[in-house]
Amino acid sequence: MLTFIPAQWVQTSNVVSVRYLLGRLMSGASFFLAALCLLLSPQAHAQTVSISPNPLPDGAVGVYYSQTLVASSDDATATSEDVDAIVSGTLPTGLTFDNTTSTISGTPTATGLFTAMFHVTVHDDKGVWGDTVPLTITINPAPPASAVPTLGAGALIALMLALGIAGIWYRRSMG
Fold first, then answer.
1. Dihedral angle sign, alpha carbons of residues 154, 157, 163, 164
2. Taking the complete model, does pTM exceed 0.85, yes or no?
3. What would the CATH number be for the domain defined by 49-140?
4. How far apart are the C-alpha atoms of 102 and 133, rounded to whole Å?
5. In whole angstroms, what is the distance from residue 134 CA to residue 69 CA?
6. What span, in angstroms and rounded, lies between the C-alpha atoms of 53 and 102?
7. Per-residue pLDDT tens over the stretch 40-56
8. Is 92 exposed, middle or buried (0-12, 13-18, 19+ CB in 10 A)?
9. Domain range summary for the chain, segments of one domain joined by +
10. Partner residues linked to 47 by β-bridges
């Protein structure tokens, strides 16, 4: 007799209306009153969530990476939105997700394209709900080594002597 009640109506905020409905049905009240109660119950969330930045900025092997994720929703009554977990997929080796700060950080050790599904929790006037958002990050090869030459102690002394000799020659030729 109660199989017509969709699961979406059995939410924290609907406990009073469901209890009322069940009480009315059990006491033999009309089906019309029960249907009216269901129609007046809040509907399931139709809002969407997003995470920014999306896509994530590229990273490079051997270069420290840090990116804080910011969740948002189109729920006008939302009081908070949090990125709180990775539910599937993987981050690049060397990167971790801190769910207390919503930050991906670390030093990647492998190149590639990585995708992970992040869960967003939203608190609003109806209770708590959530959804998942896929994020992709590209890790590029390590940047080339610096092209600035370094001089050893011997080369530095030779350079100083050469410049010193050139300076003496310049002074004598000028006069």
1. negative
2. no
3. 2.60.40.10
4. 14
5. 12
6. 12
7. 334 455 578 999 999 99
8. buried
9. 7-40, 49-140
10. none
